[in-house]
Write a structure and sequence with these properties.
The complex is a heterodimer of chains A (332) and B (265). By secondary structure, chain A is mainly alpha-helical. Chain A has 2 domains: 39 residues, no CATH class; 239 residues, Orthogonal Bundle (MetI-like fold). Chain A has a two-stranded antiparallel sheet. In chain A, a hairpin with a 2-residue loop joins strand 1 and strand 2. Chain A is globular, with a radius of gyration of 28 Å. Helix content of chain B is 76%, strand content 0%. In chain B, helix 3 runs antiparallel to helix 8, helix 3 packs across helix 10 and helix 7 packs antiparallel against helix 8. Classes of the chains: A mainly alpha (332), B mainly alpha (265). Chains A and B meet through helix 2, helix 4, helix 5, helix 6 and helix 8 of A and helix 1, helix 3, helix 4, helix 5 and helix 6 of B.
Amino acid sequence: MAATRSTPPSPLHVPASPTFRAAEASVGRVLVLSIPWTWLILLLLLPTAIVLKIALSQPADGVPPYAPLLHWTAGVPHLRATWDNFALILTDPLYRGAFLHSLRVAGLSTLICLLIGYPMALAIARAPERRRNPLLLALMLPFWTGFLMRINAWIGLLQDNGWINIALGFCHLPPLRLLYSDTAMYIGIVYTYVPFMVLPLYARLTRLDTALLDAASDLGAPPWRVFLSVTLPLSLPGIWAGALLVFIPAVGEYVIPELLGGPQAQLIGRVLWNEFFQNRDWPTASALACMLLLLLLILPLVAWAAGSAVLRAARARGAGGRAIAAARQALP
Amino acid sequence: MTGRRPLIACLIAGYAFLYAPIAFLVTLSFNASSLVTAWAGFSTRWYVTLAHDRTLIDAAMLSLRIAASSATLALIVGTLAGYALARFGSFRARTAFAAAVAAPLVLPEVITGLSLLLLFVASEQAIGWPAQRGATTVTLAHASVSVAYVAVVVRARLADAGTTFEEAAADLYAPPWRSFLLITLPLLAPALVSGWLLSFTLSLDDVVVASFTSGPGASTLPMVVFSSLRLGPTPELYALATVIVALVTLLLLAAGVAQRRRPVK
């Protein structure tokens, strides 16, 4: 071995010294990691810290419109943090209402997306293999045509004298007031986010072991029973992923309620936007952002706890034992 | 299998829902009337108007420039992050790193936009840069979101590809940088292309983050479209949408043909 180290070794037969390679690799690792870390600190952690700082500041007339957090008097720094902005959000019905409204709209939109998206994902997953990719591509094509362009089309379709009302008129039905209503807003949100529900569901459903389905029907389970006790529990991770991909952007949505919803559609994203751009109240806007962030961190935990509780209860009743055990393992 | 027919009906209804507005856009873009609600015969006048609309064309050019540069920036940083997550095993603060990389995926746009604008304002106060918000700040903001998408795609691709080739290269005394350039990058090529395209699309489509981080005189295409949509839809925008639909369809067809032509090894 010593001889091979001193002379140029034949690379095919002698492995490199592990310590040398490890040392070299660790320098390389630090270099590789330093770039994304610097990036993340500057463009993610620092901005978040600044939002928190401004949320704790007092509003003031000036540029920028907030009082500095650290106040120097005779060379001694005084911290002038205030919880007022958070207190205002928690007590003022406008902000509380906006949070509740956002949660309701996002929750209901997620549910509608699930109801529309689940059969679509199942149909694509069960389609012949050569048809699946074109079907998925067709699902994503509207996404590439531009979000505002599709909202633009819905405005034209939903207007008072728009094409949906023209069609209703042909059928001698009374016209509906659709644009600038909650219905229009839900249509816009569901339309925009349905593909994000279908994709993770599809990914999960194609990996589903069809032998389990065959076993269930061989044992005499009717199709609805196979679906409820095998397919549905096994696709739960896909449902979670899809729900997250729809719910999170929907909670903070600004453009759709602004363009399709009426003035009553005061969702949290819209309230934040108006506080910032119209009222120039940066501290309140920042506090709203902090609260929204906190909510989004807490909600998945609550949903997970609720999901586990339901599964535990179902298991205690002994319903569909094995499938539910499998679903439990699959919970994130 | 039982229950196929209702599933297929759901699929057709779903695609009809997805495509009805697009069919509407394309049809109405050829409308002679300046109202979007009445058909007054076939005409291409809105395409002529579109071709002479300097505001829209300038905004589109700016958007394309921002999308290309932010996608490239995101590709560099995101590839390094995805590579580290897929190949470095455990390292100090790995969990924090992974969470920070993925965070923009689950941050609502208003929070991203607000926090980055406040960062740019604070940095202007502290070090005098950026002196003015505009294309540069929007590029940085878009890249900061896209890094997460690139990292996810790269990480998934590396996890799928396995480490066999890299181990072989290391056994043959290739230093890590060499193995990265000769083995990892070619393996990653499809992920890099799709990561770049995804970042490019996200940037072209974004109105919220751009509105927060842009400044006077630097309106991207979605910002211009958004402000005109607030006043109501116009056939000119339908013509623009039709042009985009045509371009995207052509690109997808070209990609499909290219993929089919590639020799099977």
